[in-house]
Design a protein that fits this description.
- By secondary structure, this protein is of the alpha/beta class.
- The protein has 12 helices and 5 strands.
- It folds into 3 domains: about 130 residues, Rossmann fold; about 60 residues, no CATH class; about 100 residues, no CATH class.
- A 5-stranded parallel beta sheet has the order 2-1-3-4-5, with helices on both faces.
- The protein is elongated, with a radius of gyration of 46 Å.
Length: about 325
């Protein structure tokens, strides 16, 4: 047997513990010995064990009590046990087997029989462990199929990494599942990115249309009493409201403490100051563009008079 097992010897007699441990070690197995049933249970709960060599007759907690405790514990019930009994104590061996022991050995055992029974017990344990592990892998694959069925194709959510490492039919099936999920996930990711791009482009088009209304509305305002820069302000405000509504709809509105209020305030003041200077400059050069209302004609005459005084015309016979 190439695979080495971890064997626990539970016996209250030191001589018997040494004999059993020596026989197990001679077969190449790892062996640990304890002197009572309580110590054996504590060790099994704290350390992995492949097989137990258990004495039946022990003080305080005998072998039957240990077997009952093991079978009532889900973590210990699958550990195989060989009970050690005397040749004339067949009834105890039968009772122990009825309580869940796999086999029995007499205290005066033969080395060949010991090797055969221990190795056979370990082989059964390894086959059982492989079957349990295979069943768990099948259950994982079934859960992955359910995840795919509900439309979640994220490969990291399938949990097939460990199964894909197997070199059998189950591993091949897991790799097929993982590859198909990866392809669908990448396709969906590209589709979502395209949808986001289209939504962003549509939003930019809408905002561009709204912002483009500034110039025509300003020109329309030149024939009305409304100030053109005031009209531009309202169009800008409408654009801002549309941007905020878009952010609310997308769920990307920043928290108030994350908004750079100082930057926006400085930008608003700078823009207001710039508009004031622009209005003053343009009102002196193109009166009807920025001056409206009932006094627009009088203002134009005043500006024209100011131009004629500042730049006199040349007349024949007049020397400059």
């Amino acid at each position: 047997m190439s695979r080495k097992g971890r064997i626990l010897v539970v016996d209250d007699t030191r001589t018997m513990r040494l004999k059993l441990a020596a026989a197990a070690t001679a077969l190449g197995h790892q062996c640990h010995s304890v002197g009572s049933g309580g110590e054996g249970l504590e060790y099994m709960r704290a350390n992995p064990v492949d097989a137990v060599l258990l004495d039946v007759v022990m003080p305080e907690m005998d072998g039957f009590d240990v077997l009952r405790a093991m079978k009532s514990d889900p973590a210990l019930r699958d550990i195989p046990v060989i009970v050690i009994s005397s040749l004339d104590d067949t009834g105890s061996a039968v009772k122990a087997i009825e309580l869940g022991a796999e086999d029995f050995l007499p205290k005066s055992f033969d080395a060949v029989i010991f090797r055969a029974r221990v190795n056979t017990l370990l082989e059964k344990k390894y086959v059982r462990d492989a079957e349990v592990d295979y069943l768990k892998q099948v259950q994982k694959l079934a859960r992955a199929a359910q995840i795919l069925k509900i439309g979640n194709y994220n490969p990291s959510k399938l949990g097939l990494g460990e199964i894909s490492q197997r070199h059998d039919a189950l591993g091949d099936l897991a790799r097929v599942f993982a590859d198909a999920a990866q392809k669908v996930y990448e396709r969906e990711r590209r589709l979502r990115q395209s949808i986001k791009t289209l939504r962003g482009g549509f939003g930019l088009i809408v905002l561009g249309i709204i912002w483009g209304l500034v110039a025509p509305l300003s020109r329309m305002a030149s024939g009305l009493e409304a100030h053109p820069f005031g009209m531009a302000f309202w169009v800008s405000l409408l654009s801002g409201v549309c941007c905020i509504a878009w952010s609310v709809a997308k769920g990307t509105v920043p928290k108030p403490r994350e908004i750079p209020w100082g930057y926006f305030l400085a930008y608003a003041l700078l823009g207001a100051r710039g508009e004031h200077h622009l209005h003053h400059h343009r009102s002196g050069r193109i009166p009807r563009l920025c001056v409206c209302g009932p006094h627009a004609g009088r203002a134009a005459e005043l500006v024209a008079l100011r131009r004629s005084v500042a730049r006199p015309r040349w007349c024949p016979g007049h020397t400059l």
